[in-house]
Amino acid sequence: MPTKTVSTNDRSPKVTHRDLRPSNGGPTPAAESSVASSALERRFLRRALQAIGNPPIEVELWDGESVSTQPDLVKYRVHVAGRRTLWKLFVQPDFEFADGYVEGRITTDSDLTELIQTVFAAMADRLPRPRLERFLSWATGHARSLKASRENIHHHYDLGNDFYQLWLDEQLLYTCAYFESEEMSLEAAQVAKMDYICRKLCLKPGDRVIEAGCGWGSFALHMARNYGARVTAYNISREQLAFARARATAEGLGDAVTFVEADWRQIRGECDVFVSVGMLEHVGPEHYRKLGKIIKSCLAPQGRGLIHSIGLNRPRPIDRWTEQRIFPGGQPPALSEAMAIFEPSGMSVLDVENLRLHYAKTLRHWLKRFEQSSDAVREMFDEKFVRMWRLYLAASVATFEAGGLQLFQILFAPAINNDLPRTRDHLYPLRPGPS
Amino acid sequence: MPTKTVSTNDRSPKVTHRDLRPSNGGPTPAAESSVASSALERRFLRRALQAIGNPPIEVELWDGESVSTQPDLVKYRVHVAGRRTLWKLFVQPDFEFADGYVEGRITTDSDLTELIQTVFAAMADRLPRPRLERFLSWATGHARSLKASRENIHHHYDLGNDFYQLWLDEQLLYTCAYFESEEMSLEAAQVAKMDYICRKLCLKPGDRVIEAGCGWGSFALHMARNYGARVTAYNISREQLAFARARATAEGLGDAVTFVEADWRQIRGECDVFVSVGMLEHVGPEHYRKLGKIIKSCLAPQGRGLIHSIGLNRPRPIDRWTEQRIFPGGQPPALSEAMAIFEPSGMSVLDVENLRLHYAKTLRHWLKRFEQSSDAVREMFDEKFVRMWRLYLAASVATFEAGGLQLFQILFAPAINNDLPRTRDHLYPLRPGPS
Question: Which entry of A97, A254, A292, A360 is 20 to 30 Å from B318 by CA?
Answer without folding.
Answer: A292
